[in-house]
Amino acid sequence: MTGLGLAISSKLLSMMGSKIYIDSEVGKGSHFYFDLNMNQFILDPNECIISAETENQHVYHFTNELINQITSHGLIKIMLVEDNKVNLFLLKSILKDLLPSSSFYEAVNGQEAVELYQNIQPDIIFMDIQMPIMNGIEATQRIRAIETTRSIPIIAVTAGTSEGERENCLSVGMNDFLTKPIVRNSIEKTLKQFLSIEQSTKETIEQIQVENIHIDFQKLEEANKSNGVYLKSIFPYIKESLLEGQKELHQHFNNKDIKSINLVAHRIKGTALTASFSQLTLLSKELEMTKDFDYEIIQNQLNRLDAEINYLVTIL
Description:
The chain has three domains: 8-71, no CATH class; 77-201, Rossmann fold (3-Layer(aba) Sandwich), CATH 3.40.50.2300; 233-315, Four Helix Bundle (Hemerythrin (Met), subunit A) (Up-down Bundle). β6, α2 (85-98) and β7 (103-107) form a beta-alpha-beta unit. By secondary structure, it is of the alpha/beta class. It has a five-stranded parallel beta sheet, sandwiched between helices. Strands 1-2-3 form a three-stranded antiparallel beta sheet, with no helix packed on it. A two-stranded antiparallel sheet has the order 4-5. Helix content is 46%, strand content 18%.
């Protein structure tokens, strides 16, 4: 190929994780060559039959056994069941870092999880507990009821702190119990235990420097070191989640729906724990634990929670 109009020496282009190299000289032409990032599988050279060979080309035909070996080399299918966008993003980011070649499938409630499970047959499930429509306990019971040939590891991921919750999760068929905020080391141990995964990657941590008494910086720094995820990258999700939760709380307050208020407060608490927002964690937990609808009490709780969210949103 000629006519590029200029000389390019060892020009490197990156596309979709692979690399294309160009060596070019005016009047002489260009050479293109590339690397492809592909899943690894073992090829037995004895099963490859060379049917043609020229100076610059080898043509191979493969036996059916080898074709089956290649096509059956599937990815690990991971199902994430979580209604909190912030926690979902963080969990998925950590798992992608640990298992970059995996496939991810998402559900926002237990009902979706049961339907998705039947369609994809995942290798492992990370299941939130408190969700709308159908919670993680009932979803696990239904999945266990329809399993046929294998028992999929189901890992509870919850911000709940009630006594006996761990035992309750394990009693319905869950295999392990992880508490929020989500920590990379715990997830890595879980993967090693249930999938025999030994792969682990390290990443340079970007420190978030915002001096504010509403944030527990010690926990935030520990989360950065433990998770290997740029927490600043999830701030837009945190902001969106807080504003959505704030709007929902006022709607449920107008409807005097204390159960829905508790559920949304629980979700906000999960976001606050992930982001190390200490004051918001306490305020949302207080609202989550309020079981009777007293107009003045809840109005006061909402006012304090609104003030905290409004403040945090301005610095995100």
